[in-house]
């Protein structure tokens, strides 16, 4: 079974979502189905259909979360150090074309959030950064042409 790299924070987020689905969402949708059944004819009951659809989504997500959690390999960034980019590193880059600096943390695919600077380990930029060191330059294909970045700083928190 292939392990899925993840930070402790990412694993906690998945566990919290799973707990919420099992303890809040699942019982609520079961009540909604029971209430919709009480209204009679199920073939023309939109509430019943919507509740069954939501139940299907919840059950599918529960299975997905359980699988992700069971294969999670938590990597603690505080145990890592050095100037080489690894999973969970905070990497400060400068775009060589615009001179804009940006810091990214390389995280698991389920944790990625571009708005908060959390870059999926499977993203082209993250793939280009893994194994590189401070001072190295990486080139990444982009829709408007290749972008080139210099690694200014690598930290682990």
Structure description:
Keywords: DNA-binding, Elongation factor, Protein biosynthesis, Transcription, Transcription regulation. One of its GO terms (molecular function) is DNA binding. Belongs to the GreA/GreB family. The chain is α/β, with parallel strands linked by helices and 157 residues long. The protein has 2 domains: 4-74, Orthogonal Bundle (Helix Hairpins); 77-155, Transcription elongation factor, GreA/GreB, C-terminal domain (Chitinase A, domain 3, Roll), CATH 3.10.50.30. 39% of the residues lie in helices and 22% in strands. It has 3 helices and 7 strands; from the N terminus they run βααββββαββ. It has helices at 8-38, 46-70, 124-129, and strands spanning 4-6, 72-74, 90-95, 101-107, 118-120, 137-140, 147-155. The strands form 2 sheets. Strands 5-4-3-7-6 form a 5-stranded mixed β-sheet. A two-stranded parallel ribbon has the order 1-2. The radius of gyration is 22 Å and the shape is elongated. The mean pLDDT is 91.
Radius of gyration: 22 Å
Please report the total strand number as a whole number. Answer: 7
Helix content: 25-40%
Question: How would you name the CATH homologous superfamily of the largest domain?
Answer: Transcription elongation factor, GreA/GreB, C-terminal domain
CA-based shape: elongated
Order of helices and strands: EHHEEEEHEE
CATH class of the largest domain: Alpha Beta
**Structural class assignment:** alpha/beta
Strand content: 15-25%
What is the CATH T-level topology of the largest domain? Chitinase A, domain 3
Low-confidence stretches: none
* Overall number of structural domains: 2
Largest sheet: 5 strands, mixed
Distance between the termini: 29 Å
Can you count the helices? Answer: 3
